[in-house]
């Protein structure tokens, strides 16, 4: 199985990045996943088509079956980047626990967090590295596709850019929407939309990045939390510590492949809401229930 890793055609032109790559300028990509090997395959394939090459990928696996492990072992020899698999047994939704383990396993000073169902555009890592700043974290978004369209995307569509081509997506079931601007924004257009969007810059688990030292100072993710705002809570602690969020919603682009959410529970949502309320009230900068148990 041959995976392309160099120049890719994007809407009738060839991408030749002018981004100056530095051997010291590296990034760890942490991808959360749970029993979605087909989606994860597309995502790992997309990272093999990135314009920026100096990175590692860590799959933070919240207890998937051996099918995910088998996929990773099958793909690893065909990927140019280092691929790590951090896994623990399935004990229900424990995304924060496995993310903290992945943070410890990372080997760079800058960390990008996304999901195993979010396919990055070819310049995704390049944009995160271009816009990172000391004392800040980056807040991106995603463009959500329907299940029908998600299933039609093959590996070739990932690396030839079809899955980010509005005409191609509309021909395969995507509806017209202002949000489609995320797919083809760059330069001045993306800058304007980032500044005009009413959406606040928050830590989004599907597309955010920050300095490892800041994340460690916050003690990572609060492991008491289940689904529902668990990512944002860490971002709120970063902001309490003076780390400023920067909006790159229309700059660092991913598409979100659809899936069911059987893990959503009202009890967990209520618990998470209470934890976030306490974080805001106490202006907490560090959790006692993170990487280190304080």
Description:
This protein has 294 residues and is α/β, with parallel strands linked by helices. It has a single domain, classed as Spore Coat Polysaccharide Biosynthesis Protein SpsA, Chain A, CATH 3.90.550.10. Helix content is 36%, strand content 17%. The chain is built from 12 helices and 12 strands. The chain has helices at residues 37-47, 66-75, 95-105, 124-131, 147-152, 155-159, 166-171, 181-184, 187-196, 212-217, 230-240, 266-282, and strands spanning 9-10, 13-14, 27-33, 55-61, 82-87, 110-115, 118-120, 136-139, 143-144, 207-211, 244-247, 254-256. A 7-stranded mixed β-sheet has the order 5-4-3-6-10-8-11, with helices on both faces. A 3-stranded mixed β-sheet has the order 7-12-9. A two-stranded antiparallel sheet has the order 1-2. A hairpin with a 2-residue loop joins strand 1 (9-10) and strand 2 (13-14).
Main sheet makeup: 7 strands, mixed
* Low-confidence region ranges: 1-20
The domain tally reads 1
Helical fraction: 25-40%
What attributes does this structure have?
294 residues, alpha/beta, 36% helix, 3-stranded mixed sheet, 12 helices, disordered N terminus, Spore Coat Polysaccharide Biosynthesis Protein SpsA, Chain A, 7-stranded mixed sheet
